[in-house]
Amino acid sequence: MAETTPPIVAVRNLSKSYRRGQQTVPVLQDISFDIAPGEFLALMGPSGSGKSTLLNLIAGIDKADSGTITIGGVEITTLPEAELAAWRAGNVGFIFQFYNLIPVLTAFENVELPLLLTGLTRRERRDHVETVLSLVGLADRMDHYPSQLSGGQQQRVAIARAMVTDPEILVADEPTGDLDRVSAGEILALMERLVHGFGKTIIMVTHDPRAAEQAHRLLHLEKGELTDGAG
Amino acid sequence: MFILKLLIRNAFRHKLRTILTIVGVAIAIVAFGLLRTLVDLWYAGVEASSASRLITRNAISLVFPLPISYKDRIRQMPGVKDVSWGNWFGGIYKDEKNFFPNFAVEPKSYLAMYPEYVIDSSQVKAFALDRKGCIVGRKTAERFGWKVGDQVTLRGTIFPGQWDFVIRGIYRGAQKNTDETQLFFHWDYLNETVKKTLARRADQVGFYMISLTKPELAAEVSLAIDAIFKNSLAETLTETEKAFQMSFVSMTEAILIAIQIVSYVVIVIIMVVAANTMAMTARERIAEYATLKTLGFGAIHIAGVIFGESIVIAMIGGIAGVACTFPAAHWIETELSQFFPVFSIASQTIVMDLAAALVVGVVAGIFPTWRGSTIRIADGLRRIG
Predict the structure, then answer these.
(1) Which residues of B touch A102 (CB under 8 A)?
(2) Is residue B66 a contact partner of residue B203, using CB atoms and an 8 Å limit?
(3) Would you call B196 an interface residue with chain A, using a CB distance cutoff of 8 Å?
(4) Which residue of B has its CA nearest to A224?
């Protein structure tokens, strides 16, 4: 009998709704799927389909109404807030559309941020930060502030920040949405490298078909339901 | 360390806004400090007065005089060391705006009883020998450019007429809070002139000043003095100099309370302004706080960043305000010395200034801190796909 690799992410019967005044608006309805380790998954769908909400739930920054999400054997849907924050810090890297860098911190300091919550020494932190900034090709820009960097460079700093704690999973919400074609290509190439070179699992929300093409698998969401590709 | 670095950099992110807030807090602290000092000034006479000296005045009111004959009977009382007497003269130098306090006193006993007026012994002698002589405080002499030997004419208000004096001495205060604006002249000069012009008001004094052999006898002696003049035509009220001064403060208590209220209102206003600034700042940075939370930073870190920034801005404003209070007080003391002969900032006022700045920082930071630290990450990131 062939041995199958257990999924790194297992989503089961996940539902989520928002309240708008007196109305309850369902956003995700009974979603189930798995993601294998080292997979590059793209989530696509029209605006309001629930893809960012799904990403937030997998990343542990939002709470589901029902269903479970198990990541690396940990059922994160049952974790209390403080434990969830600690879990996030060690297990998930975040890449945002608008980079979400802290403008008053340099590239180095922005990348160092997640390490401040670890027990690493100053020297160890410096080594880690320099390594990831070299990896994203910004070793010479570490003392620059975000305003002194281009959009593509800022996104690479954000990727370095997501990578610096060496998480198994990276979640990316429209990572190329604010970039020109060339910069977007560079970012996608870098993400591809993280999957193939470093074995990271990437879950990416995108509207960009070109970005989606880079993914190993594509999931379509429509009105809070998966329309194809679940598995 | 990171929180400190972040909050300091955040504080100066919008330089103009931060500087305007700091200036606002500084101005409020200057106003608060000056108003508190004004309140203290009200009590300066009380503070500078002695608990071991008594003042005896007419029991009905200070405006009614007492006979000069009382002095010998008071002097004979057990516990009394010496007696002096005087009248509020209320003279005007050229114009009402040139106000300074002026009194007719018995020179020898008065200067012996008030060592806080420091004056050269040769000037004391010259003053004692000249019936028309007077001594004047350093600040008033400087204000009008008077020197020893100058002739000064005051227009009498309570005692009508033109009153000529020759300055025989200029005194300094032994302490910072000693009033250096007063003028003293011979009670005999007043009395002899009054005898000629207003005979019915002659041989009467406004108040007696009594020094005691032991300060602890104050209550006993006061009661004894008032007892011997009971049922006379001019009954007396004797109290310590401190209580006497305090009675003047009590007369103006409503003004005092109004000033105190205004001083607190100033702080409340700047508190609201600073709170608005901090709320605006926190609102603009909600996505950053959400990002920090996403990375694993807790509510306590976010609270530290926002609260710390609020306190840093308020305390910089507070320190700047304290630094500006001293030159402002010096300016008032020199330029408005006729109204505020002593205007020095007490160390207690500085503590209150800094405490007020801290309160502004704390109160201004409460709501933004609560909002920033409790924001849901997903809401903060404002992305619902």
Answers:
(1) 6, 288, 291-292
(2) no
(3) no
(4) B385
Alpha-carbon distance of A107 to A129, in angstroms, equals 9
Give rounded-to-5 percent helix, strand, coil for chain B: 60, 15, 25
d(CA B107, CA B105): 6
* pLDDT tens readout for residues B87-130: 999 999 999 888 899 999 999 999 999 999 999 999 999 999 99
CB contact under 8 A, A100 and B291: yes
The CA distances from residue A134 to A142, B261, B324, in Å, are 9, 62, 50
Contact A117 B295 (CB under 8 A): yes
Sheet holding A92-95, edge to edge: A92-95, A169-173, A201-205, A40-44, A217-222, A225-228
Q: What's the residue count for chain B?
A: 385
Eight-class DSSP state of B199: G
Q: What does the block give as tokens for A191?
A: 């993400």
- Are residues A52 and B385, on separate chains, in Cβ contact within 8 Å? yes
Residue A37 has pLDDT above 50, yes or no: yes
Cβ pair A53:B384 closer than 8 A: yes
- Summarised one tens digit per residue, pLDDT across range A120-139 is 999 999 999 999 999 999 99
Domains in chain A (CATH in brackets) are 38-62+80-228 (3.40.50.300)
Q: What are the φ/ψ torsions at residue A141 (nearest 5 degrees)?
A: -120, 15
Q: Which residues of B touch A56 (CB under 8 A)?
A: 377-378, 381, 383
Q: Which residue has the higher pLDDT, A82 or B59?
A: B59
Q: Dihedral of CA B330/B332/B337/B341: which sign?
A: negative
Determine the distance in angstroms separating the CA of A147 from the nearest CA of chain B, rounded to an integer: 13
- Put simply, whether B293 touches A (Cβ < 8 Å) is yes
DSSP 3-state of A24: strand
Tell me the pLDDT band of B384, cut-offs 50, 70 and 90: very low
Strand, helix or coil at B289? helix
Do the chains contact at A205 and B385, CB–CB below 8 Å?
yes
DSSP strand E in chain B: where?
53-58, 66-67, 80-88, 102-105, 117-118, 133-137, 151-156, 161-173, 183-186, 204-205, 207-212, 236-240
Q: Do A104 and B2 touch (CB under 8 A)?
A: no
In three-state secondary structure terms, B203 is coil
